[in-house]
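User: Can you recover a sequence for this backbone? Please restate the input before giving your answer.

Assistant: Of course. Working from this structure:
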Protein backbone atom coordinates (compact mmCIF):
# COMPACT_ATOMS: atom_id res chain seq x y z
CA UNK A 1 0.00 0.00 0.00
CA UNK A 2 1.38 3.40 -1.00
CA UNK A 3 0.86 6.70 0.88
CA UNK A 4 1.21 9.83 -1.28
CA UNK A 5 0.75 13.57 -0.91
CA UNK A 6 -1.45 14.82 -3.76
CA UNK A 7 0.37 18.18 -3.93
CA UNK A 8 3.59 18.22 -1.86
CA UNK A 9 4.19 21.91 -2.62
CA UNK A 10 0.92 22.83 -0.85
CA UNK A 11 1.06 20.22 1.92
CA UNK A 12 0.65 21.38 5.50
CA UNK A 13 1.93 19.98 8.78
CA UNK A 14 -1.15 17.77 9.26
CA UNK A 15 -0.63 16.24 5.80
CA UNK A 16 2.98 15.35 6.60
CA UNK A 17 2.06 14.19 10.09
CA UNK A 18 -0.61 11.76 8.83
CA UNK A 19 1.60 10.54 5.98
CA UNK A 20 4.48 9.66 8.32
CA UNK A 21 2.18 7.88 10.79
CA UNK A 22 0.54 5.84 8.02
CA UNK A 23 3.84 4.92 6.36
CA UNK A 24 5.22 3.73 9.69
CA UNK A 25 2.10 1.85 10.78
CA UNK A 26 1.55 0.13 7.42
CA UNK A 27 4.77 -1.80 7.99
CA UNK A 28 2.91 -3.69 10.73
CA UNK A 29 0.94 -6.60 9.11
CA UNK A 30 -1.98 -6.18 11.52
CA UNK A 31 -2.30 -2.45 10.75
CA UNK A 32 -1.92 -3.18 7.04
CA UNK A 33 -4.96 -5.50 7.22
CA UNK A 34 -6.94 -2.73 8.93
CA UNK A 35 -5.95 -0.28 6.16
CA UNK A 36 -7.10 -2.70 3.45
CA UNK A 37 -10.63 -2.59 4.90
CA UNK A 38 -10.84 1.22 4.99
CA UNK A 39 -12.39 2.94 1.99
CA UNK A 40 -13.36 6.53 1.27
CA UNK A 41 -12.41 10.03 2.31
CA UNK A 42 -11.76 11.28 5.85
CA UNK A 43 -11.27 14.91 6.85
CA UNK A 44 -8.94 16.11 9.61
CA UNK A 45 -8.94 19.72 10.80
CA UNK A 46 -6.34 20.68 13.37
CA UNK A 47 -5.09 24.09 14.48
CA UNK A 48 -6.46 25.80 11.37
CA UNK A 49 -5.07 23.22 8.92
CA UNK A 50 -7.17 20.83 6.84
CA UNK A 51 -6.16 17.45 5.48
CA UNK A 52 -8.21 14.96 3.49
CA UNK A 53 -7.19 11.31 3.52
CA UNK A 54 -8.55 9.23 0.64
CA UNK A 55 -8.29 5.44 0.93
CA UNK A 56 -8.48 4.33 -2.69
CA UNK A 57 -7.47 0.68 -2.96
CA UNK A 58 -3.69 0.32 -2.90
CA UNK A 59 -3.13 4.09 -2.73
CA UNK A 60 -3.79 6.40 0.20
CA UNK A 61 -3.88 10.00 -1.01
CA UNK A 62 -3.37 12.87 1.42
CA UNK A 63 -4.09 16.48 0.52
CA UNK A 64 -6.47 19.38 0.71
CA UNK A 65 -8.96 18.42 -1.98
CA UNK A 66 -10.63 15.20 -2.95
CA UNK A 67 -13.65 14.32 -5.03
CA UNK A 68 -16.34 12.34 -3.32
CA UNK A 69 -18.31 12.14 -0.12
CA UNK A 70 -16.50 12.58 3.18
CA UNK A 71 -17.21 9.59 5.43
CA UNK A 72 -16.11 11.20 8.69
CA UNK A 73 -14.55 14.38 10.08
CA UNK A 74 -12.25 14.89 13.05
CA UNK A 75 -11.65 18.41 14.35
CA UNK A 76 -9.45 19.59 17.19
CA UNK A 77 -6.06 21.01 18.06
CA UNK A 78 -2.89 19.44 16.68
CA UNK A 79 -1.65 18.48 20.14
CA UNK A 80 -4.96 16.65 20.78
CA UNK A 81 -4.53 14.65 17.57
CA UNK A 82 -1.01 13.85 18.73
CA UNK A 83 -2.43 12.57 22.02
CA UNK A 84 -4.77 10.25 20.10
CA UNK A 85 -1.91 8.91 17.96
CA UNK A 86 0.12 8.25 21.10
CA UNK A 87 -2.69 6.25 22.68
CA UNK A 88 -4.96 8.69 24.52
CA UNK A 89 -8.58 7.67 24.96
CA UNK A 90 -10.33 9.45 22.08
CA UNK A 91 -13.76 8.83 23.59
CA UNK A 92 -12.72 10.73 26.72
CA UNK A 93 -11.27 13.55 24.58
CA UNK A 94 -14.56 13.66 22.64
CA UNK A 95 -16.62 13.82 25.84
CA UNK A 96 -14.39 16.62 27.18
CA UNK A 97 -14.96 18.57 23.95
CA UNK A 98 -11.31 18.51 22.86
CA UNK A 99 -12.20 16.85 19.57
CA UNK A 100 -15.33 17.00 17.45
CA UNK A 101 -16.37 14.06 15.34
CA UNK A 102 -18.97 13.93 12.55
CA UNK A 103 -19.97 11.26 10.08
CA UNK A 104 -19.70 7.49 10.11
CA UNK A 105 -18.22 6.71 13.52
CA UNK A 106 -17.78 2.99 12.83
CA UNK A 107 -15.59 3.75 9.80
CA UNK A 108 -13.71 6.38 11.79
CA UNK A 109 -12.91 3.94 14.61
CA UNK A 110 -11.05 1.71 12.14
CA UNK A 111 -9.05 4.69 10.93
CA UNK A 112 -8.20 5.74 14.49
CA UNK A 113 -6.96 2.18 15.17
CA UNK A 114 -4.72 2.48 12.14
CA UNK A 115 -3.32 5.85 13.24
CA UNK A 116 -2.38 4.72 16.76
CA UNK A 117 1.30 4.09 17.36
Amino acid sequence: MQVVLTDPSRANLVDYFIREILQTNLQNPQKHRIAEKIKGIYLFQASGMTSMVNFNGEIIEIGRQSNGKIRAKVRGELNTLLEIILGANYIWLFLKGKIRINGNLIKLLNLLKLLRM
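That completes the design. The chain has one domain: 2-115.
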